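In response to the reviewer comment on reproducibility (Comment 2.3), we provide here a single inverse folding case reported in full, input and output, so that an independent group could reproduce the run without further information from us. The structure tokens appear first.
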């Protein structure tokens, strides 16, 4: 799998799902989607399909087509799909339902709200609620993105193959989250999700949201944080090392 296809899968399976998080808590996103009863679909030829279903003020994400799409962003190559997410334009004839201007413009506006939380607030002083919202988006992207790279990037096979089948890693932020988990299934695939699982193989715990934020922004002295117990690793430490190596590559893909 080449870089463009890996990046396309990151956009579909790690970036797009963050929109559902933003719709949950962002006032502007809720205003944009108010009254929507619609399905948006994204994909490229020979690649996976992802659908976003909007109904009753909520957004649900599906990794396959589960309903007829009202608007479908459909691309002949993964590079063209990537251009949409990178803000480098897209080909109108490949958008089924492009006449539904409200939905097309609405998606573009939602993407800007997502970008606001993923990058737009970096380095700014945030209140507790906004800090939690930013962490939710960034940690969701980090765990889902790690799952994609562990499966798809052949250069990371040395790390992903080293993780035992059935192993689970919890990412825990004290005192009350947000928390996420990453799991390697018995079949060898990787999945990620909200919350934490009981009896994980390993657990990475942050003493506060501020500490987790510093780590995600690359501002934390990890060794010092481990020494001060601001970051605590429990369980299978090599699994945490492997996941950290994969996560470091995510930044090179998404910037």
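Designed residues, in position order:
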């Amino acid at each position: 799998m080449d870089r463009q296809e890996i990046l396309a899968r990151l956009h579909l399976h790690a970036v797009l799902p963050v929109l559902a998080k933003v719709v949950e808590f962002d006032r502007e996103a809720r205003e944009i989607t108010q009254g929507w009863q619609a399905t948006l679909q994204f994909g490229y030829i020979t690649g996976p399909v992802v659908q976003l279903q909007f109904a009753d003020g909520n957004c649900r994400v599906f990794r396959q087509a589960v309903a007829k799409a009202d608007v479908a962003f459909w691309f002949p190559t993964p590079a063209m799909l990537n251009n949409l997410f990178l803000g480098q334009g897209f080909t109108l004839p490949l958008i089924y339902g492009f006449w539904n201007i409200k939905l097309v413009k609405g998606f573009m506006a939602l993407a800007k709200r997502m970008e606001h939380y993923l990058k737009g607030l970096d380095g700014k002083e945030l209140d507790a609620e906004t800090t939690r919202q930013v962490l939710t988006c960034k940690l969701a992207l980090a765990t889902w993105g790690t799952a994609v790279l562990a499966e798809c990037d052949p250069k990371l096979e040395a790390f992903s193959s080293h993780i035992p089948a059935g192993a689970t890693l919890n990412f825990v932020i004290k005192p009350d989250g947000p928390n996420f988990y990453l799991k390697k299934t018995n079949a060898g695939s990787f999945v990620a999700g909200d919350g934490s699982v009981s009896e994980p193989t390993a657990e990475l715990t942050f003493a506060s949201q501020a500490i987790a934020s510093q780590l995600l922004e690359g501002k934390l002295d990890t060794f010092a944080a481990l020494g001060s117990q601001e970051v605590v690793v429990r369980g299978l430490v090599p699994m945490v090392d492997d996941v950290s190596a994969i996560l470091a590559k995510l930044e090179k893909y998404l910037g």
